[in-house]
Amino acid sequence: MLKALLLFFVLSLMMPAANGTSREKTAANIVGHVIGEGEHLPFVNISVKGTTIGTLTDETGHFYLFHLPVDEVVIAAHYVGYKPKEIKISPEANVTKELTFVLEPDVLGLEEVVVTGDRNARKRSESPVIVNSIQSGLFTATQSATLSESLNYTPGLRLENNCQNCGFTQVRMNGMEGSYSQILINSRPIFSGLAGVYGLELIPANMIDRIEVVRGGGSAVYGSNAIAGTINLILKDPLTNSYELGFNSKLSGVGFSGSGGPTPDHAAQFNASMVSSDYRTGLAIYGFYRDRGSFDANNDGFSEITSLNNSTLGSRFFQRFGNRGKMAVDFFNIREDRRGGNRFEYPLHEADIAEAVTHQITTAAVTYEHFTREYDLLSVFFSGQHVDRDSYYGANRSLDGYGHTTDFSYNTGLQYKALMGSSTLTGGLEYSGGLLKDKKLGYPEWNESQNGGTSGPTHVENTIVSHQSASNAGAFAQYDFQWNRLLVSFGGRVDHYQIEDLEKQFETKKGTVFSPRLNLLYNLSPSLQGRLSYSKGYRAPQIYDEDLHIESSGSRRVIHVNAPDLREETSRSFMASAEWIRQWGTSNLRILAEGFYTRLNNPFANEYGLPDEEGTVVYTRVNADGGATVRGVNTEMNLVTGNRFNLTAGFSFQSNRYDQEQEFGETRFLRTPGSHGFMSIGKEFPDNWEMAATATYTGEMLLPYFGPALSVPEEGELRTSATFFDLGFRLQKQLTVGTSDLKIFAGVKNLLNAYQGDFDFGIERDPGYMYGPAQPRTIYLGVKIGNRAGHQSS
After folding, report:
1. How far apart are the C-alpha atoms of 310 and 86, rounded to whole Å?
2. pTM of the model
3. Tens of pLDDT, residues 50-92
4. Which of 477, 646, 703, 777 could form a disulfide with 753 if both were Cys (CB 3.0 to 4.6 A apart)?
5. Which DSSP string corresponds to 301-336?
6. Selection from 375, 315, 394, 381 nearest residue 616 by Cα
7. How far apart are CA 172 and CA 185, in angstroms?
8. Are 486 and 501 contacting, i.e. CB atoms less than 8 angstroms apart?
9. Which residues are within 8 A (CB) of 454 and not within 5 positions of it... i.e. 6 or more apart?
10. Contact 161, 167 (CB under 8 A)
């Protein structure tokens, strides 16, 4: 019923808007220009608040708005690196007026507009929760081909590689594993558990405008699986007529004597956008291609880094209707083949170990926004993602490792934001769900026949591993108000979830959860802000989620199941932070200290079973006795000086423990270091030279090991990892070629070769015993070319 109502709302709102695309020819026009630090600024975003009317300044910093409403309006100017500014003006029919914007620098990005904190666009300095923004400049400094390579450079986040055979990665936030964080695409939770297994390395960086990270429980805003926080991928908008092409080549494993030597990794990308002369229609397209070979670090014939081949093609389209309506459409398709193990020149079932997957991921989204009254905003949205995956997880040249998985996830709903003086009320309905079917493919098997003793073929039938339907209906509301220097934001969300096993192996799991949220922002002084927050979150008990990944080796295969009495996991999170900003002369300094405390109730944990006669081990997901506590401190510093130097550094301390002993009799969370940090330095030199240095630090952590070095491998043992310091450099030179900019760059990742030195060996190895930086020492060289508009928009 709720799905039908939401579909009705979508159609009823969008159909009238599509029929009313014209706007009154008032001839009430405005011409103007934008100045920053004494120079005209090109490609500045100019918009009329409360409407969808907008434009950009041209290359000379001038703009033109025509046929405006004959009434008092607010014109806003937004530009990266500068504080936004608004000016009230009253257009008059058949009159052209002039307007001048003078923008002040915002080198720390405090006035940047973010959307993830509370589902509404607001300045970072006015957000009741801390929102970290990863911009394209960091993608460049870290030479990130994909999303995964930049996530280490945000407080509280740490990317890890969990499997030698398949390259499965996950991001841990505040020490909690990946399934505790919700990954959003344009604020929509359609990144399914299946896509998330390899998804961080699937999504190319050139399709992303920025990444917004919110730490702490966010279920009151975004639903299930946001206990640790949210990672919101904001895709690029078409802003100007622009293009950019790029190519780079890497060699990973420089200095190793492993089989085959260093591994080549080649990538190419393109971005282009087009907008109409009146900025009412825009189209952006992007593409990405990557080809990487496998890498064997310890010369045992088995890979530590998988081979992969990725191709991505996508687009984003917008159309404005009248003065107040806008529709945006996103579509992208990702295809990737990856393989780990050995004997890469042979078919999968001829390898001693092979873990391989072929993904086809297709994502589409439609959003319609309409301003009502003066500044109220109604949003109606639908997003869907389909994953088609062929897989092989096998060892000892077996035929029974082939599988096929399909998964469709969707999210639809509506949201209304009402402005009431100095307060805001936001509410909405949301319905999300998914259908997953995972099967193990049958294979021929030769047996002795009963007549004459000759052999003949029989067939093993397909086996359904999981056939799951999941749905969640939610309603949320949030109220914000300003009282002197205090901003208060409070609200809640009610969710009803249902997880159904369509094969009827397990009973249907369902429940209703209420998640409240309270955030306080207090401006103690012009340079000091304090924030307090409380939130409740939950994770629904899935039949399969991120754990659909299957480890495989010569001695054991691991699968995951839920205990019959498994209940949802809930959390209560508290956060407190202080943010201090100081400016002297042309230098700016920002320091953030943030404490977090999360109490997990009925936390999910694994009970390890013993291998059966076929070597299969069952991990049963249960609710741990007692609970668990996650606590720690995140710190961050940003320094920008007038001589074009910038430094960003962060460090995290954490202590995460169960109340009672879990695996190996241990209360501490496994694979969770007590400390980790990052640093990024950038410097611009005369004659268009740029230098960047980046580094990450990872402290010691406890790791489970099941491998042939043990007398009883199935019992396993706990080991303690070493510490790692990963250092990289990048140098770039920009040249002008006609009307285009040409960038030539080179650099090195993991210069000190801080890479794991005790990988397990051979066919009996434990592929899950992997930790430390994801890449060994890697050198790279590349080139980009694009027009100036393309560089500004990216």
Report:
1. 44
2. 0.90
3. 888 888 898 889 999 988 888 889 999 998 889 899 999 999 9
4. 777
5. SS-SB-EEEEEEEEEEEEEEETTTEEEEEEEEEEEE
6. 394
7. 18
8. no
9. 448
10. yes
